[in-house]
Amino acid sequence: MTSLSVDPKATDATKAAPGKSRAEKALARFHEEDRLGEGLDTRILAGLWPFIRPHAKWLVISLFLLLAGSGLAVLQPWLMGRTFDAFDQPDAARTLMQMGALILVLKLFEQSIAFPQVYLMQLAGARAAGDMRAHVFRFLHTRRLGFFDRTPVGRLVTRVTNDVDAINEMFASGTLNALGDLVRLVLIVVVMLQRDWQLALITFVAVPPVALGVMWTRRRIRDAFREIRVKTARMNAYLNEQISGMAVVQAYAREEKSSLEFDDINEAYRQANNRSIVFDAALDAAIELVQSLCIAAVLWYAGVRSLSDRVSFGTLVTFVAYIEMFFVPIRDLSARMTQLQSAMAGAERIFQLLENNEEDAPVPAASEGQAEKVEKKDESIAFELDHVDFEYKPGVPILRDVSIQAGKGEKIALVGATGAGKTTVASLLLRLYEAKEGHVRVFGRDVKATQRDELRKKFAVVPQEVFLFPGTIASNIAAGDVEVDEARVVRALERIGALDLFERREGGLEAKVEERGSNFSAGERQLIAFARALYRDPPILVLDEATANIDSDTEARLQKAVWAAMQGRTALIIAHRLSTIRAVDRIVVFHKGRVVEQGNHDTLLAQGGAYARLYQLQFSRGEAHAAE
User: Fold this and answer.
1) Rounded CA gap, 285 and 345, in Å?
2) What pLDDT score does 384 carry?
3) Cβ 74 vs Cβ 188: under 8 Å
4) Among candidates 225, 346, 219, which has minimal Cα distance to 274?
5) Is 233 a domain residue?
6) Number of compact structural domains in the chain
7) Which of 220, 246, 535, 575 is the most exposed place for a label (fewest CB within 10 A)?
8) Is residue 400 part of a domain?
């Protein structure tokens, strides 16, 4: 795997053109990625080997056929030269027929092995790329949530799609056929030296400048393709944002501004592609020029030599054919080098992603023995935060010395102003984030000593913003199950009183759910989320502003069923509307990341503290709205 580092000489994305606005500079700063340092191709190829190894047999067969084809191709000009040399011999006609038949057989055999060679090469490449894409996809599922908070979605999509495709194209375009090109070059050199070493040396004089040109171009093409990868990721990220936020874009009439910003991104992408095209075209034209000069030089020198030493016509034909054949693999090598540089740039970016060590909820090996001791501590406590501190960004505390205990079956509500840290408590219990200080325990066991899946199966979360997957109503309620248990789906909907609502839809429980559930109202999506939680039937239910998007009639219909569903299980309710939590066992009041009050509704009102002020504020607003 390549060593990756930030290039200190690289142009920082924040150094935008002087004429650009502050918003555009911020956009570039957010979407641009760190430039990658120089990576050794051999190390990158070594990183690719684990994905190629399972399909190496097809690759080996393909390379064997490639070498055989290269040998057959080199043999044909030599036979043509022998044929022309036999023109002045008595048996020229017979020799011509024999050589013609032999060349025809060799050409047919060469072409007959070309198909399996190309097919097997692409088969190995497609399967290796498929394995890599699946590996990157699985890897993303194991990253900590904080990683996704600061990484644009489009950038990650580029890794799984464009960058892997660039590696697959290395096989599809025959880039690995460069090995056959090298073998062909060696064979041509040997035959040319054997045929006429003086003419051969004239041809070889052109090799050093071509080699220097290839080496000079190689670094610049790699840089160009790195730039293309960066601009592609930025474009994908911007497109994802604009499409996801189309409602806001249209509501605030930002279409023209968004179009101008996209023009800047698109122009940068076009310029990056143009640089790679210029280098590639210049190298190809230079090789064509050198090839023509070599043919002219050989013909000139043959004319000079013919004044004193006759050069056979067969030798000239052979050399002209070999010169053309000699520069074909060189030209192919330059084209394949271009594709190889694109693949290496894509591989670098993938390996940079795979070097991320922010694993989601890892369990240290040393914790296994300790876990058993902690687990026996007190299983009557459903969950507990013990003097917990937490911050999303260093130096910006969210929770400060928070301690909360919830017994089995207890219903606890968290209230407080926006940003006080209520939702963060649920995230710490699920170990979506790590506490900076203190301990978080679920059923007496520290979450850091509990396997991720084992921990999260104890919870069902009903969030304020519900995410629905494309599929059906039933498959969304049974999210996480490979096979949908229709009886459980029906029971879950019955318990929240929504079975008749969804059965009336066309298709019933098999009604289609479009992307993000856009064909359902906010209230219907919320009801599906409640049913999803009850389908899972966990010991702890987390309701995060779960009724915020439901109208009053739907909320009244739902409240009774929700309270019935919470019987026999622990519930953590995060709420802004205090009228919905009067009947909970305990209310925990947050203020600026600290727990300032705990108690039931009546007790907290009697204390006249923070909760009483929040309640009076909401009650007075409710009266004002009612009066209107």
Assistant:
1) 24
2) 93
3) yes
4) 225
5) yes
6) 2
7) 246
8) no
Q: What angle do CA 232, 238, 241 make, to 5 degrees?
A: 140
Residue 544 domain boundaries:
409-432+447-627
Contact 582, 588 (CB under 8 A): no
Mean per-residue pLDDT of the chain? 79
State how far the alpha carbon of 51 is from the alpha carbons of 56, 333, 456, in Å: 9, 24, 32
Distance CA 166, CA 158 (A): 11
| Alpha carbons 318 and 76: distance in angstroms, whole number | 9
pLDDT digits (tens, 9 = 90+) for 499-523: 888 888 888 899 998 877 888 888 8
Task: For residues 574 and 581, give the distance between their C-alpha atoms in angstroms, rounded to a whole number.
Answer: 9
**Is the four-CA dihedral 293, 299, 302, 307 of positive or negative sign?**
negative
> Angle at the Cα of 522 (from 518 to 525), degrees rounded to 5?
75
378 falls within a domain = no
Kindly report the three-state secondary structure assignment for every residue of 362-423: CCCCCHHHHHHHHHCCCCCEEEEEEEEEEEEECCEEEEEEEEEEEECCCEEEEEECCCCCHH
**pLDDT in the model for residue 489:** 92
- Read out DSSP for 480-531? T-SS--HHHHHHHHHHTT-HHHHHTSTTGGG-EE-GGGTTS-HHHHHHHHHH
Q: What is the CATH number of the domain that holds 30?
A: 1.20.1560.10
Give me the count of residues in the chain: 628
558 shares its domain with 623: yes
